[in-house]
Amino acid sequence: MDKMEDLPPQRRAEILAARLERSQRALSDAEDALESRMKQLFRANQDLSLRESELARKLEIESTLLLGALSTIGMATVYGERERGFTLSEGANAILGLPDGEAATVERLVAALHPLDRDRIVREGRRFFSEKAAGVPHVYEHRIIRYGDGETRWLSWSITREESREGRPAYLLATVRDITEERQNKRRVRALQLRAERRVAELASLQAELAAAKERVEDTLSARNRFISEMAHAIRTPLAALTGGLELLQAKVRDDGLQDLTIARNASDQLGELASRLIEQADSGDEAPSPSFPGTAALPTPSTATAIPDQPKVLLAEDTESNRYVVERLLAELGCVVTSVENGAAAVEAVRREDFDLVLMDVMMPIMNGEQATQTIRGLSGRAARTPIIGVTAHSLQSERERLLSAGMTACLAKPVRKEALDTAIRTALISGRDVSTNQARFDHELFRRTFGDLPPAYRSRMRDAAKKDITRYAGEVLEAVETNDDEALSRAAHSLTGVSLNIGAIGIVEELAAYREAAPLGEVSIEPFREAVAACLLVVDDLYDALVSGAE
Amino acid sequence: MKGIIFTELVGFLDHAGGPDFAEKVLEDAGLPHGGAYSRVARYPWQEAVRVVEAASRETGAEFSDLCQQFGAYLFERFTVLYPEIIGRYSDAEALLSHVEDHIHEDVKILYPDAEPPTVTVRNEGDRLRVEYASHRPFAHIAHGLVAGAMNHFGDLRDLEWLTSSEGGTRAAFAMTR
């Protein structure tokens, strides 16, 4: 880097000339900029002066208003010596209403005293120097009749007496104010205050009446809802027995009797529906939460047991004898081995003592209800805690269903229990061990309709039941083969299951099975999606059958 | 942008490369008025970019490096030009923490039409985070200024780049131990 002094003279001269020229132009720029700033400052100064004069004018106005306000306050001072008389300040003229030029005197003041206050004030005045304590202010209020307009005005005095001291005579110093407006305002404020207090008291009384009326209405409504709910529940218990009885009769009745039985079943269904609606109606008006254990139980982990037993061991917990009899019979017809207990506490004991494949649990039971029993079972140790539990409830409310599921139930059935629904619920619970959403079921509806449509009507429901049984069986074999790593058994069971599933269009099962078998050789893969697909398909088969097959007949 | 930045930029060229280099750069930059800058006037910031670009072409140095060097030079010049402002602070952290509420406020009083960048500072555990934001792409100059301030106060901490916007209008640095 060459410094200026290291450069050749010619170059140095050129650079200095260029810089001088630039400096001159920069100076010119600076002058322009400064001039512009000067103009701005001048304008700002002008603006400031304008604001100053505006402010001064405003201050003057405020000051005038303030002085005017002071003069209208109506205040005066009085100085007096007993022997030498009294002097009143200028404000006293305005207070007494005297015209300008006329001096206010004590005599004029006494003459203006209101007749009703005159004696009292004159009496107080006479003994003021002799009786009133010195050095402290004494306050008086009285009326005058003002000169000029004759208006009655209220005055307030604050008078202090000082004793004679060191040659100075005794004297008094007083201030007097016209407090007429102040008194009126106070009275108005007090009147408004009293009125407001009365209104508040009235409102409080109205609110109390309203609350009492509301309480009466709520009590009445609650009693009505309780009555409706109790009656509907009471109807449901014999109704459940009736429905179950009809279910049992179906296997025994032949020919024309079947049609009569269908009519009776329809009537029973309608009664069940009516009872449900009554309960829903009553419960929707009663928001008191039903008693339950605090907190929610952990959802059961699906059992790793995979084979679906041919004769599942079922524990039935039901307090009503007729219902117990009917459900026992239905379970027996479905091939279950049944053990019955009469309340939740007995159910817990039974599960603790013995292994069951499934528990069918009534919700409303004495001693310990189904919800509490479920929570207790979920708190047990070992396999017992994972036993699938199907709740049976007279309610069909979604909120209750969710509560029961969160308490640890695997699924819920509404009373009266129908054989098909019971069959499906048992299969689903055994397969999945948890609540399954029907959204997970994938079916080819056309294939489903055609399979059943091609059969004579008398064979269709039998075909449906057979398909459910086969799917349960082969799915169980698939799960068992997966558990034991038996490739040959898996291949065999998968082949059978695929055939049965495709027969009724249950493509969800086929797809999940294929996905599992494809991914299994590549490493860790879960069988859970397959398990859920089977459970979901079993869950919707009946509804699909009603919608696509029997509904279309 | 304020003229003082331009006059100091010309001074930086002189200081860094000598008068001959400075003249060549100004000529090469093709400025509308040949680089005749006044401290009290205002000029488009794009002209400063053109000057640094010309210096970069002349020397082969990176544009961003030259900006950082100029930032450090500029801070040292501030200590000469505005000793009463710089003298208020005992260390770099105190100065940087008050750029926004003291220094830029003063700048706005002196030059009401000035648009200084936003500089925010906050403690993040064992480091001090400094964020720069402006409508002008001078994040590297800001970095140089912070480095210059640290050098002036004898602050031995490292100065790290944390983030930078593509155009150089925003950046964040950290003073770390």
UniProtKB/TrEMBL annotation, chain B:
Molecular-function GO terms, alphabetical: heme binding
Top-level taxon of origin: Bacteria
Listed SUPFAM superfamilies: Ligand-binding domain in the NO signalling and Golgi transport
Domain Heme NO-binding: residue ranges: 2-154
Official protein name in the record: Guanylate cyclase
Organism this protein belongs to: Qipengyuania flava
